[in-house]
Amino acid sequence: MGRPRAFDEDVALDAAVSRFWSHGYAGTTVRDLEAAMGLGSASFYNAFGDKQALFARCLQRYLDGTMRARMADCEDRAPLDAISDFLFGIVERSLEDRRGCLLVNTAIELAPHEAAFAGTVAQWLRELEAFFARCIRRGQADGSIGPQRDADDLARLLVSTVLGLRVMARGSPDRALLEGVARQALSLLPPGAQDTCNPRSRSNGDTP
């Protein structure tokens, strides 16, 4: 039976996530990680393997704690509220944290030449698309979103909006600009019978 670890793995992983998020994969060395995590070389390799294996764990931890958690939180809301709150939540987080989205950063930096990370990026994009598609289909079923357009096509449009917001915020962290993009994306969802009779403020940018 192995000896218990003399460090808190969750704390160490959070420190690694922060380092990768701030400096990127290429800009982070194993020594940087050891210093950030407070680990010696032997402890680092025994616990986490190599830099690539650690980054894979960090990326999943980031997705579970941010994007997947946010999707789960929005899923129980009314369809249009779920979509609107998610998009405007992206705007808020993009303005609050200039590091951007670790997943989007990974897609740009690593996915083109690292197959393992390309698979993680593709899987997350499918999850996000499925989340939007579920919301749209629920809206089409309850009359808050019109049936004129294909739910999967609209979901892919919203995924593209999320990615665009994240990238735009890195270079132009302007609230009016980003909220304008989110409003226009929402305006492309066709109004349903319920929405026509009782118009919802799709474009006010309010979030709880």
Element layout with pairings:
Blueprint lengths: L8 H15 L6 H8 L3 H8 L2 H15 L1 H9 L3 H18 L5 H8 L5 H28 L8 H21 L3 H13 L5 H5 L11
Helix pairs in contact: 1-2, 1-4, 4-5, 5-6, 6-8, 6-9, 6-10, 7-8, 8-9, 9-10
CATH class of the largest domain: Mainly Alpha
Helix/strand structural class: mainly alpha
- Domain module tally: 2
CATH topology of the largest domain: Tetracycline Repressor, domain 2
CATH architecture of the largest domain: Orthogonal Bundle
Could you give me the name of the CATH homologous superfamily of the largest domain? Tetracycline Repressor, domain 2
Please state the CA-atom Rg, rounded to the nearest Å.
20 Å
How much is the average pLDDT?
91
SS strand fraction? under 5%
Following the backbone from N to C, one meets helices and strands in this order, namely HHHHHHHHHHH
List its salient traits:
208 residues; mainly alpha; Arc Repressor Mutant, subunit A; Tetracycline Repressor, domain 2; 2 domains; 11 helices
How is this structure best described in words?
The protein is mostly helical and 208 residues long. It has 2 domains: 9-59, Arc Repressor Mutant, subunit A (Orthogonal Bundle), CATH 1.10.10.60; 66-197, Tetracycline Repressor, domain 2 (Orthogonal Bundle). The chain is 71% helix and 0% strand. The protein has 11 helices and no strands. It has helices at residues 9-23, 30-37, 41-48, 51-65, 67-75, 79-96, 102-109, 115-142, 151-171, 175-187, 193-197. Residues 29-48 bind DNA. It comes from Futiania mangrovi. This is TetR/AcrR family transcriptional regulator.
